[in-house]
Amino acid sequence: MHNIFRKLKIRLLVTATDESGMSTVEYAIGTIAAAAFGAILYSVVTGDSIVGALTNIINRALNTNV
């Protein structure tokens, strides 16, 4: 009977401390964070102020006298 409890205790400890699935969760969280950062960056770059500033820079570059 003592042997059964010992095996059960070892099995529970191994199950509680097993971290083999952590890398999958970390990759998933990293992917979600990257997608959110991309969405924020896209909304900033496509905003009117950025598009206007880039258009102004390109127009000044094309209209310079050399």
Structure description:
It is rod-shaped, with a radius of gyration of 28 Å. The chain is an all-alpha fold. The mean pLDDT is 83. It has a domain at 34-66. 83% of the residues lie in helices and 0% in strands.
- Could you describe the largest sheet, including whether it forms a barrel? none
Oligomer: single chain
What is the gyration radius calculated from CA atoms? 28 Å
Strand content: under 5%
Order of helices and strands: HHH
| Annotation field: number of helices | 3
What's the total number of strands? 0
Large-scale geometry: rod-shaped
The average pLDDT is: 83
From the N-terminal CA to the C-terminal CA, the straight-line distance is 95 Å
Structural class by SSE content? mainly alpha
Q: What are the low-pLDDT stretches, counting only 5+ consecutive residues below 50?
A: none
Q: What level of helicity do the residues show?
A: over 70%
Kindly list the characteristics that best describe this protein.
66 residues; mainly alpha; rod-shaped
Outline of the structure:
This protein is mostly helical and 66 residues long. It contains 3 helices and no strands. It has a domain at 34-66.
Helices, strands, pairings?
Blueprint lengths: L1 H16 L4 H24 L2 H15 L4
